[in-house]
Structures are given as structure tokens and as C-alpha cells.
Design goal:
This protein is α/β, with parallel strands linked by helices. The protein has two domains: 7-34 and 189-269, Rossmann fold (3-Layer(aba) Sandwich), CATH 3.40.50; 39-187, Rossmann fold, CATH 3.40.50.10090. The chain is 36% helix and 19% strand. The strands form two sheets. It has a six-stranded mixed β-sheet with strand order 3-8-7-4-5-6. It has a five-stranded parallel β-sheet with strand order 2-1-9-10-11, sandwiched between helices. It is elongated.
């Protein structure tokens, strides 16, 4: 049996480390190379205001675990954790298990959370919409908590916010009302010469790149425009992400749901 290739985890630093540890437990030599840096917004006023107006919403959609963490970090001391009360508004909506775990870590009861079924084909905005569509009636108010790419971003704007924008359009088409609040900033990586050389080596040494964001793929391609990726292999956790990897030239791209055991199975199938 051939040893499994090294996996390069490209998620933001905190999530990347958790994935690296999980993959190592499953027998994969994994290393982290975060392609997106996550940071707080410079001015949290809008977040604090959102907390004070939370009771006016029927649901809050969190686009990621980072959206959860940064939103709850700005919760004012005088605002109750409304999500924790059974039967009270608002509902908490997420697209996948990682964000659901982040909500529960913040004190949100599982019964207050709506998310795609664990046995579903995808964890994304489309799957979430199928779950919550019956709740959305005319006048239903939804707050979408998202990140915002910095002005220095090199990612293709067309790859940013596809899921959340589509979701907002579905809510509005059903007669609902959508507001947005930015909870964190995403920033592109900056490589020094030694890091660029390491990436160039990893592009052709059999490593498997694990992508969980089309924006991250865009950052990688834009930050190293002369790099050839034809020998590189990737596992992408969504069809849109897989397409982004193919567009920057990755020679082989497999798809997997963002569950570690399934990612490992995809790495094995890449041999």
C-alpha cells in the first residue's frame, strides 16, 4: 500500500490547525498554509448595532464559523443571548457542521439552529435554502453575517459572495427582507521568497492541496501569477471551489464534502 501524500490545508489559521491535527490522527501527513487571513473589522459599531436590533429579525444567517466567532465577540453585555431561548426569534442559520459547532460553542441551543442535513450531498447556501424555505413568508426578516475582503484583496470579485448573494435573492424573491452586517475582514497572503519557493515545490511534489474557499484559490493564483499548477493535485469541498482550482491550472481536482474522513478518502483516491 502506498503511503498517503502530504496534505496542504489552506483554511484560515485557526481552522487550518484543527484540520491538520484531525488529518494527522487519520494518518495523513498534513501541514497548514492559510490562504486567507482573518481579522476583526476596524469599526465594530455596525456589529454592536446589529446585536441591539436582533429581536427584530426572524433569522440570522452566518456564512462561516468565522462569522459566528466575530459576531459573538462583539455581543454587548446588556444584550441577551436570544438564540438560547427555545421558540424565540431569531433562528440561527448555517450552511455546515463547522459553523453549527461554532454556534453551539457560543451557547446557542441546537434546537435554535437550522442547517442542511448531515447526510446531504453538499453543505452550502443551496442546501440551507431547501431546509429553511418553508419558514420564509412575506415580511420575514433575515440578517446575513458575513466577511468583507480588504481593499488589498487580489481575489476575483466574481468568486466572492456567490452563495450568500444567491441566498439573499431567494429570501427576497419569497417576500422576505434581507440586511447584511460585516463581522470580519479577509485578507490575501503575502509571500516572502522562501515561502514562494516552498509553494513552487509543493505544486509538483505530489502534495494534495485542500481547498475550502474559491476566494482562497483566487488569492493563491493571483499572488503567484507565474506559477504553473499542471502537476498539482487538489481536493475541493464544493463544485464552485473545484472549478476555481481548475481555472488557475490545477492538473487534477477531486471533490469532497468538508468532513475529514471524506477528505481522506479523496486523498486516497488521488493516488
Amino acid at each position: 500500500m502506498h503511503p498517503l501524500p502530504r496534505a496542504i490545508v489552506t483554511r484560515p489559521a485557526k481552522e487550518a490547525q484543527a484540520w491538520v491535527e484531525g488529518l494527522r490522527v487519520l494518518g495523513v501527513d498534513a501541514t497548514a498554509l492559510p490562504l486567507i487571513t482573518i481579522g476583526p473589522v476596524a469599526d465594530p459599531t455596525a456589529l454592536v448595532d446589529a446585536w441591539h436590533s436582533l429581536a427584530h429579525y426572524d433569522a440570522v444567517m452566518f456564512v462561516s464559523g468565522n462569522a459566528v466567532a466575530h459576531f459573538f465577540a462583539q455581543r454587548p453585555a446588556d444584550v441577551a443571548l436570544l438564540f438560547a431561548a427555545l421558540g424565540s426569534a431569531p433562528r440561527a442559520w448555517v450552511t455546515g457542521p463547522a459553523s453549527q459547532s461554532a454556534l453551539q460553542a457560543c451557547g446557542v441551543l441546537p434546537a435554535a439552529i437550522d442547517a442542511p442535513a448531515m447526510d446531504g450531498a453538499q453543505f452550502d447556501s443551496e442546501a440551507l435554502w431547501r431546509t429553511v424555505r418553508p419558514r420564509v413568508v412575506p415580511g420575514y426578516r433575515v440578517l446575513i453575517v458575513r466577511g468583507n475582503a480588504s481593499s488589498a484583496s487580489h481575489a476575483d470579485p466574481a468568486s466572492q459572495g456567490v452563495g450568500r448573494d444567491w441566498f439573499a435573492q431567494q429570501v427576497q424573491a419569497a417576500g422576505g427582507v434581507v440586511d447584511f452586517v460585516v463581522a470580519y475582514e479577509r485578507r490575501a497572503p503575502v509571500w516572502d521568497a522562501s515561502q514562494a519557493a516552498w509553494i513552487a515545490q509543493a505544486a509538483c511534489d505530489g502534495s494534495v492541496w485542500i481547498f475550502s474557499s474559491a476566494e482562497a484559490v483566487g488569492y493563491l493564483g493571483a499572488s503567484l501569477p507565474q506559477q504553473a499548477w499542471t502537476q498539482a493535485r487538489a481536493v475541493a469541498t464544493h463544485p464552485r471551489i473545484a472549478q476555481a482550482a481548475r481555472e488557475i491550472g490545477f492538473g487534477r481536482v477531486l471533490q469532497s464534502r468538508p468532513l475529514l474522513a471524506e477528505v481522506v478518502a479523496s486523498i486516497e483516491s488521488s493516488l
